[in-house]
Amino acid sequence: MKRDTATKIITANDLLSGEVVYLSTSGKWSIRHSDAILFEDKKAANTRLTEVQAQDTSIIGPCLAGATLADNQTPMPVHFREVFRSKGPSNRFLGKQTYAA
Amino acid sequence: MPLENPILSISERVTELNSRYRNQKTEDVLRDILKDPLFGPVALVSSFGAEAVVLLHMISVIDPATPVIFIDTEMLFPQTLAYQKDLAEKFGLTDVRRITPSREAVFQRDTDNLLHLADRDSCCALRKTEPLERALIGFDAWIGGRKRFQGGVRVAIEMFENEADTRIKINPLAHWSREDVADYITVNTLPRHPLVAKGYLSIGCAPCTTPVSAGEDYRAGRWRGEEKTECGIHLASHVPNSGEPEVNTAVIVNDEGFAPDDWDRGYSVFEDMDDLSETQKSALAIDLPNTFDATDLLPWIDQIDLIRVEFPVFSDGRGFSLAQRLRLLGYHGRLRAKGHVLADQYAMVRRSGFDEVEISHELANRQPQSQWSARAAWQTHNYQQKFYQST
Amino acid sequence: MYNYTTFDKDFVATRAAQFRDQVQRRINGSLTEDEFRPLRLMNGLYMLLHAYMLRVAIPYGTLNGTQMRALADVADRWDKGYAHFSTRQNIQFHWPKLQDVPDILESLAKVDMHAIQTSGSCIRSVTSDHFAGAAADEYEDPRPTAEFVRQWSTDHPEFAFLPRKFKIAVTGSARDRAVIKLHDIGLTLVRNAAGAPGYEVSVGGGLGRTPMIGKVIRDFLPRADLLPYLEAILQVYNQIGRRDNKYKARIKITVHEHGIEEIRNRVEESFSLQRMRFDGVDQDIFARIEADFAEPIYKQASIEGYEIARQSDPLFRSFTDTNLHPHKNADYTIVTVSLKAHGATPGDASSAQMRVLADIAERWSHDELRVSHEQNIILPHVHKGDLPAVHAALRSAGLATANIGLISDLIACPGMDYCDLATARSINIAQGIATRFDELKLEHDIGHLKLKISGCINACGHHHVGHIGILGLEKSGVESYQITLGGDGTETASIGKIIGPGFSTDEIIPAIERLIMAYLDLRLDASETFLTVFRRLGPQPFKTALYTNEVKNHAA
Fold first, then answer.
1. Which of B9, B364, B369, C63 is deepest in the core (most CB within 10 A)?
2. Which of A27, A50, A55 is the closest to B206 by Cβ?
3. Residue B343 and residue B367 in contact, taking contact as beta carbons nearer than 8 Å
4. Which domain range does residue C387 map to?
């Protein structure tokens, strides 16, 4: 498994619910990884991240995470930590994995 | 590009323009400016703030290809960014230039995006004045949205101004009243900035803008509580850190609430203690870093009237121990915590031996008196006090 | 148990109200996230991987039935119907929402509970021996001291913004069950030659990235000097503890860098000043606290039923073989309820199980429960005659696993299934090991063994002091597990040694199996524990077992 990729998504936790959220193509925060906007280069991703950090008070801890395009053309996480964040814990069926696809 | 026919100096032209357009309709003035070859390239500089929609609408009617410079300080409200996109699309503006601060400069001068807390003028310079300066290279004149009714230094502005003999600054709405603005927006059914409905009458960067209450000055919500009223892009001679005397912006917090600083005799540092004049000794105040060893002060401990302990950041708790030690070593004078102290720490500050807190106006804005007063009863719910004294 | 006074009740209620206000101010922008974070942490609220996590204090692991039931109610009403008992004798809820936390804290304040100082760079919730006040091997009850320290450290104005977190543990038994030597300050109750009560004080112990055994700074501190002496240690640490590097900010590094002699001199100087603040009224408070910890009124009854059940019920017999500890009253026993059913998540309990425990405690354990740092629940005062009924009640709730002290009674932090700091999972490894040794039916033969798993270098799973420690790391983008051997968290404390390269998720459980098989081959007889064999033979035979491909067959 690759540790990192050139393509990035922006992720954070929602201030109120604490849930993992992703910056989506619409500019809003989505709870689904598949909605994430994929930045082709790190510089553009960083620029957007700086804007989000400075301006968006609805989320906490925004950061970049590596992601690639899946076969169905939606972004999927690369590192196993992000896989857990996108699904929920592996010892209990809780969190995002319980949502209907 | 310079003026095509620089016959007159900028100052002479400004005088001439002001007299020529004094009684003209704003739309006509704008049409002339945008079409007059004498001006060369002209840009509209827009904040996409509370009233920016008026000029944006006017130029879109005259020429939607007019360059519109939008300074994104990267500290703006998300609503402003959304509003900017909406308006550009709705009005069909084809040359909106979003200008951001220099990456390198931000990296060097504001890595953690907290410069606005430490030095607002420098923050405005970094994020607004300098980027605008770069963006205006090649323009002979620029249009802005300032109005006299906004108060402050703006009550005296003219429609045309000489900007440091380099450019002409045009204020087409200088003589508009608040009602004129409102009427124009209503008549043309223009979309308002989403924050207007929440009481923001003037909208800048998110950290330094607050809503304005009824009866307050129009721009009271900008840099609230500070003497600062302009960001710097409208001060042609503005040079950051130009050596002007430091403005005293401290707020003192004590059990009664906020108060102005009543100490005007200055502060010494420990290194000066051996060489103090008699005048200094008569009213002696000393600034201590929180790393100071309290026992070093023992020889002078009865002679000091005020000790001010620095809190560089609220999460650095060394100042609490320093205060505690100063008190146990026998210091009975005034003890003040200065710097980044939170309202939530007020009881801790008082219990560890301080008498008062000195905070910046910015912090006082964000954490107003009510939040400090909520902790003013610092003697209650105090476990330690139960253990210390039998009374 | 300690009975909350009006003062205590007002304090926690006010604190909950203050936090409600802070949450409101965070949401309206008065507090930035940078400013709010330390405030929420001081109230036990973390941001973890999937959600917020609220850590509620169970000071020195002691609670009653009403409190346990209130925790179950929190799990049902604001969380997902379960909770996790931590390795610091606290309880964690892994799914609360920010705006619900003030309501949770308010509901807990009504039963004298709170989340104060369960996180943050302050003096953390004090821990102690989970058998305190009950164990036959205890010479003095540490709970009055623990409660005394809890009150003194609560909202201490001078020590709320230390360089890093600060943990104090207390014990009064020769058998150290509180990992005393691995705490920032460890207090052991002792008497001097004249018989006066006092403490041996150790300082600078800790796990984490740089594990260190605490050093004795005072071999006898009179009880009346305790608070000023603690203040002196904290004051020295607050002033000279490093703030430039998070990984060098704990007092263990301060002691290591300055040397125990210099620290002792500074502490004594500071103590001479701090001592002046105390005029003895604190000792009156201590005496009042002590009175609250009087022994329960033991019941006089036959223990015949206990012996009969042992003869007739093999499950009961097995349970009583492993899960009991001698009580100071011979008719009584201490029951450890395992939260380590084979294949379950160590330390997790459902709200239904928590209510059963509350009921059992009220009916059969003088309304007392304890949480152990080994993530089990203790019923400290059970009359032996009631044991069959207690066992039946536990069985009905899936709480009668008879594995205390065995390999499947292992410690595991939440790891990457929940924690944002984790570098690998630990729960899945715990589940795998417990399940495997259950299949092998070997764990009773293996006997006393402490296996501890951490999902990152911060060592919440205490892997450094496990006879076998497992540390989850990330290696080239996958989870990898490093084994340490020979650790010990008791009075014979030692730090485990890294034994060699790590193992993948698939390899680690077979590796542990090879290690155990080697132990069974190497031990002189069944009474020689894994740790004793390791101390006798050193790492080499275990290294050989781990890193040679051939798996020896156990000849038992």
1. C63
2. A55
3. yes
4. 309-396
C150 with C11: CB under 8 angstroms? no
The closest of B251, B283, B290 to B267, measured between CA atoms, is B283
DSSP letter at B131?
H
Q: In what order do the strands lie in the sheet with C215-222?
A: C127-128, C168-171, C185-191, C197-203, C215-222
E strand segments, chain B: 42-46, 68-71, 96-99, 141-143, 160-163, 167-170, 251-254, 257-259, 268-269, 285-288, 306-311, 334-339, 356-359
How many other C-beta atoms lie within 10 A of the C-beta of residue B138? 11
- Which residues make Cβ contacts (< 8 Å) with residue C383, sequence separation at least 6? C298, C299, C301, C303, C331, C332, C364
Distance of residue C218 Cα from the nearest chain B Cα, in angstroms: 22
A65 forms bridges with which residues in the sheet?
A9
Predicted TM-score (pTM) of the model is 0.77
Question: Cβ contacts (< 8 Å) between B384 and chain C: which residues?
Answer: 152, 156-157
Taking domain B251-383, whether its CATH number is 3.40.50 is answered by: yes
Asked if C278 and C141 sit in the same domain, the reply is: yes
- The question of whether B208 is a catalytic residue gets the answer no
Q: Are C117 and C30 in contact, with CB atoms under 8 Å apart? A: no
Kindly list the domain boundaries of chain A, sorted by start residue.
Answer: 8-98
Q: What is the pLDDT of residue B328?
A: 95
pLDDT per residue rounded down to tens, chain B (391 residues): 333 344 577 777 888 888 888 778 888 888 888 887 667 789 999 989 888 999 999 999 888 889 999 988 988 988 898 899 989 999 989 889 888 888 777 877 787 777 887 778 888 888 888 888 888 887 888 999 988 888 777 777 888 888 877 788 999 998 888 888 888 888 888 888 988 887 788 888 888 887 776 656 667 767 765 666 677 677 543 333 333 333 446 899 999 999 989 998 889 999 988 888 888 888 899 999 999 999 999 999 999 999 999 999 999 999 999 999 999 999 999 999 999 999 999 999 999 999 999 999 888 888 889 999 999 999 999 999 999 976 5
> Could you count the other beta carbons within 10 Å of the beta carbon of residue C274?
25
How far C309 CA sits from the closest chain B CA (Å)?
Answer: 50
Does the distance separating the beta carbons of A50 and B206 come in below 8 Å?
A: no
User: Of all residues in chain C, what percent carry a pLDDT higher than 90?
Assistant: 96
Q: Is residue C304 part of a domain?
A: no
Residues B251, B341 contacting (CB under 8 angstroms) = no
Q: Provide the 3-class DSSP secondary structure of residue B68.
A: strand
Beta-bridge mates of residue B339? B311
Q: Which residues of B touch C (CB under 8 A)?
A: 291, 314-318, 320-322, 324-325, 328-329, 342, 344-345, 347-352, 366-367, 371, 374, 380-384, 386-390
Residue type, C301: A
In chain B, residues under CATH classification 3.40.50.620 are 10-208
Using CA coordinates, name the residue in chain C closest to B382.
C155
Nearest to residue C473, comparing CAs of C432, C424, C508?
A: C424
**3-class secondary-structure state, position C218:** strand
Residue C493 is part of a domain; what is its CATH number?
3.30.413.10
Nearest-10 crossing angle of helices C505-522, C540-547 = 140
Spatial CB neighbours of B334, under 8 Å, sequence gap ≥ 6: B305, B306, B307, B355, B356
Residue pointed to by tokens 């600060």: C166
CATH superfamily of B10-208: HUPs (3.40.50.620)
Q: Which residues pair with A36 in a beta bridge?
A: A24
In the A/C pair of chains, how many CB contacts fall below 8 A? 69
* DSSP 3-state of C224: helix
3-class secondary structure, B334: strand
Q: Which residues pair with C188 in a beta bridge?
A: C171, C200
Q: What is the pLDDT of residue B4?
A: 37
